[in-house]
Structures are given as structure tokens and as C-alpha cells.
Amino acid sequence: MAGKTPDALVFTAPEGGVLLLRNFRRRAFNPACLAAGLDGLTPHDLRHTAASLAVAAGANVKAVQRMLGHASAAMTLDIYSGLFDDDLDGVAERLEAASADSLADSVRTGAPVVGLDGHRASR
Asked: Mean per-residue pLDDT for 90-117?
């Protein structure tokens, strides 16, 4: 896209202009999938993969919503909630590590430690 305007088309019809989905699928996408041994792959499958990779990379639901052009984060969660649910173990691990780091810092500095529940933690 280097040198193109923000509203420039990424893919165009052979004579320029908008490339219709049915033509793109028949002329370019399906033959490329067949050649790659991916018969049956759809552009929507690639959209789902892009959302999955974004979530795996740590994107929050609002970022994924904007990336996919959904009207609301609720719509994104309705469709892709399983992707975010799979990340809950990682969130728990990061919270545990942050809590342990906070306790270690307080031991070094003598500062009081407040746990994730808002109560003072014992050393």
C-alpha cells in the first residue's frame, strides 16, 4: 500500500475499480486455495484467523471490534467470546505474578502490601 491514499483499493478488478467478491473468489481466491491444497477455505475463515491471532497477541475486545468493523464490542464477544475465554488462564497467571512482585517489592522497601482484594497482605 506504499504510496497509495488511505481510501485506495487493495485489490481491484482487472480493468481497475471495485473487485466484486464473487469475481474475486472465482478468479483469484479459489484457484489460489486449490493450488495451496486448501480447497474449501473462505475469506471469512481468514477473517476468523485474523481475529484469533489478534486475541492471541493480547488485543482487547475493543481493538478486535474496530479491526473487524463490528458495530459494538458486544457483537464481537458474541461471535468470538471463546477466543477471549481461552486467555483467562494467562490473565490469572499474570495477576499472580504481579501480586508476587508486589510482595517482593514491599519486602525490599518495607512498604505495606495491599493485596488484589484491597486488604493488607502479610509478609
From this structure: 69
Rounded distance between C-alpha atoms, residue 37 and residue 31, angstroms: 10
Backbone angles phi, psi at 16, to 5 degrees: 90, 170
Cα 55 from Cα 10, distance rounded (Å):
24
Identify whether the C-beta of residue 65 lies closer than 8 Å to the C-beta of residue 75: yes
Q: C-alpha cell of 78?
A: 458474541
Biggest alpha carbon distance in the chain? 72
User: Is residue 113's pLDDT more than 60?
Assistant: no
- The predicted model gives 55-72 an average pLDDT of 89
- b/e string for 56-95 if b means 16 or more Cβ within 10 A? eeebebeebbeebebeeeeebbeebeebbeeeeeeeeeee
Q: Give the SS3 label for residue 28.
A: helix
- Cα dihedral value 26, 32, 51, 12, nearest 10: -60
Which candidate, 23, 25, 7, places its Cα nearest to that of 15?
Answer: 23
